[in-house]
Design brief:
PLC-like_Pdiesterase_TIM-brl; 314 residues; phosphoric diester hydrolase activity; binds 2-acetamido-2-deoxy-beta-D-glucopyranose; two-stranded antiparallel sheet
Length: 314
Amino acid sequence: MCWIIAPALFLSCFAVFWHAPAQDRSSANDLLFFLSSPDSPLKGYPVPLTAGVIPKRFHSHNDYAQNVPLYKALSYGASSVEADIYLVDDELLVGHTPFDLSKERTLAALYLDPLMSLIQTANEKATTGTRRGIFELAPAITLNLLIDIKTDGPSTFDKLYAALEPLRSAGYLSTYDPHTSSIKQSIITVIGTGDTPLSSVQALGSNKRRPRDIFLDAPLAKLPGDTAKVYNHTNSPLASIDFGSGVGLWWALPPVGKARIRMLVEAAHARGVQTRFWNTPIAPIWLRNYVWQMLLDEGVDWLNVDDLPAAKDF
Ligand SMILES: *[C@@H]1O[C@H](CO)[C@@H](O)[C@H](O)[C@H]1NC(C)=O
């Protein structure tokens, strides 16, 4: 494939092409966790699922479509996962399209309850005042839980806010602190994407009983022109853009592609917001890796990933 590309690209492309491809193998942690009985000594360690796993800044895109949602991503070190939600008959159901939904696959069953139990297990034997997060090796790191709202924004948002109550009252959610004008990180940071309304996020936090603990994945394309700073660190820890519209085929002309990426990243970082490009190429592998490297080189904070083993080893 490489030789059909512009000569300027040839060298870097060559290097990426020969980078050994990551093998698609199952994570040992994953298997141990699932195969052992509840009272097995394998589960005696506080965070058995993530024991020895180094968390990295990559996002498990459409995570619910993995063969084992959430757990698999965590066992590979993904410190961000995504669930698409639909409000149907007063329940939040998880799936990509309305045809993928079922009564059993609720947001609580797939994500909120397992997270609660992971955190509780990790902390039940804690002897000191320090609290453990999701990752055994990095107890202070926050897990981004991206919730892609697929049905009516305001009503789905309100239902999501209610569904988060157990995690909220346990103190496990990152929360905006109006006094310091910053987000106080906790074990999980909930970030609404898709049709999440900025107004719903912004309405939270004005009184203590409704703290702001759902944030926004801001439209990165709008940040360079957003002189009023409508999107900022108080409401949007993250901003995202479709790779096609942010960079497109300019990846093949690195000085231009990189400048486009850098311009967006600088606009976000200037207001304390992290960045993610979604819809990056997934094949061929050399192109996927080439684009990942280009994004990281220009300061992009999160890789958007479907192939978890490859991202773990990247
Ligand atoms: C952040 O955005 C909100 C809503 O758009 C705005 O009210 C607030 O003043 C902004 N804060 C900063 C520090 O820019």
